[in-house]
UniProtKB/TrEMBL annotation:
This is Glucose-6-phosphate isomerase. PROSITE patterns: P_GLUCOSE_ISOMERASE_3. GO terms for cellular component: cytosol. Pathway: Carbohydrate degradation; glycolysis; D-glyceraldehyde 3-phosphate and glycerone phosphate from D-glucose: step 2/4. It catalyses: alpha-D-glucose 6-phosphate = beta-D-fructose 6-phosphate. It comes from Candidatus Yanofskybacteria bacterium RIFCSPHIGHO2_02_FULL_41_11.
Length: 448
């Protein structure tokens, strides 16, 4: 499938004037140039010295080659299940891409492709189901790979879940199960050191790339590659978007445009950001982006160490499902939300409503229409309602849901978030308050 750019549509809908885009661009100009220089690399290749270095991953041929080799090394013809044990940035991006492309009926419609099982939290029902599954469905070592992902190497939920999974598999297969373990973590983390000491398989996460920015690293792409996705297309789409998002011309740079829109509306009191997906299979993209925005932008102190308690609250809506529950809130409720619609037309191969209806008097105008056309009509109707009610929005059009378009989307949102944080004058890459609850958890566990 040829590459097709995803489009950002905002003219006449975002409520932002040309002069405001140009002012935002002026503020960001030096930072955009800095990100552009990182993405150029040098004669020796790409380095990962900066937290923005996630922009390098899709462009780095050495990284791409080493990842493809690792996938080829670990993949085998009998592989059926990849158990991904991770949480937050170690899990959400992988899950978003997997569910977007495999859909709700994955287990029934993709029988020949390995399945990814996400073990992301310490829920007793979930872990009991995983234990039952491992005991009943895994019949040999060749059928399973366990990929443990933790940037710090000390994530409570991840370590606890791994120990449970490992105990089940060791009782069944003995020490041989160690050959089917892969640990993705920072080099030099406690997890890295322990795994290295035990002679286990390791994949490095570049140290300066934070978890929520790591989906285009081995964190996201290694398990997806094992599951027969074309990771080169993810990287190709992200590489094209990196070039667009480091453009000097503000009107050719969707990341600047989108960041400026969000920033201006936030300063005008719209502190809730609604990602409204008109394809239900994209719902998990919203969960990934919710972490991206919340952790990157919500901060107690700004870059001048002034106390600001700043933050934008991300929410997720699904069309057309949520229109039947929350449309009144969006159209009639508080004017504190900015919406970005995301829609992939998916016209190719779309099923069609029959020309002869069994119940022709109920909704006669659906006769002969494709399902894609009906969803497009719903999406278009919602946008008209927003305009008539004076509600600002922007829109991302994907054309189709594919590895390429999803790679573009994730890279756009990551770079856009860097620019938005810069406009808000906060650090997009730290999350100091996250340690507060983790510290309390460790103290409670000591006392149990």
């Amino acid at each position: 499938m040829p590459h097709r750019d995803i489009d950002l549509i905002y003219q006449n809908t975002s409520g932002v004037e040309a002069s405001q885009f140009e002012a935002g661009h002026e503020t960001l100009k030096d930072y955009v140039d800095f990100v552009w220089k990182i993405a150029q690399g040098d004669e020796g290749g790409f380095d990962y010295d900066y937290p923005e270095s996630s922009v390098n991953l899709p462009l780095d041929g050495d990284f791409r080659s080493s990842l493809l080799r690792k996938i080829k090394e670990k993949k085998n013809s009998g592989l059926k299940y990849i158990v991904v044990i991770g949480i937050g940035g170690s899990n959400l991006g992988t899950m978003a891409l997997y569910r977007a492309l495999r859909g709700r009926l994955d287990v029934f419609l993709h029988e020949k492709d390995p399945k990814i099982i996400f073990v992301d939290t310490v829920s007793p029902p979930l872990i009991n189901q995983v234990i039952q599954f491992l005991n009943r469905e895994v019949n040999g070592l060749e059928e399973i790979i366990v990929n443990v992902i933790s940037k710090s190497g000390e994530t409570t939920e991840t370590v606890a879940n791994f120990e449970v999974v490992y105990d089940v598999l060791k009782k069944r297969f003995g020490d041989k199960i160690n050959e089917r373990l892969v640990f993705t973590t920072d080099k030099g983390s406690k997890l890295w050191d322990v795994a290295e000491e035990k002679g286990l398989d390791l994949i490095e996460i570049p140290k300066n790339i934070g978890g929520r920015y790591s989906v285009m690293s081995a964190v996201g792409l290694f398990p997806l590659g094992l599951a027969n996705f074309d990771i080169e297309l993810f990287l190709d789409g992200a590489a094209e978007m990196t070039k667009r998002c480091t453009e000097k011309d503000v009107y050719k740079n969707p990341a600047i445009i989108s960041a400026v829109i969000t920033h201006l509306h936030y300063t005008n009191g719209l502190n809730i950001y609604n990602s409204f997906y008109f394809n239900p299979e994209l719902k998990s993209l919203g969960r990934w982006y919710s972490q991206m925005m919340a952790e990157s932008v919500a901060k107690e102190y700004d870059m001048d160490n002034q106390k600001v308690n700043i933050g934008i609250t991300p929410i997720i809506s699904i069309g057309s499902t949520d229109l039947h529950s929350t449309a009144t809130l969006f159209l009639s409720g508080p004017r504190n939300k900015f919406t970005q619609f995301v829609h992939a037309a998916q016209k190719e191969g779309s099923p069609q409503v029959p020309s002869e209806l069994f119940m022709p008097d109920l909704v006669p105008d659906i006769k002969g229409k494709s399902i894609a056309d009906i969803m497009s009509a719903i999406c278009y109707g919602v946008k008209i309602a927003y305009l008539k009610n004076g509600l600002p929005y922007s829109e991302i059009v994907m054309h189709e849901i594919s590895e390429d378009s999803l790679g573009q989307y994730l890279q756009l949102k990551m770079i856009e978030t860097m620019y938005l944080a810069r406009l808000l004058r906060v650090n997009a890459f730290d999350q100091p308050k996250v340690e507060d609850y983790k510290r309390e958890i460790r103290e409670i566990l000591k006392k149990l």
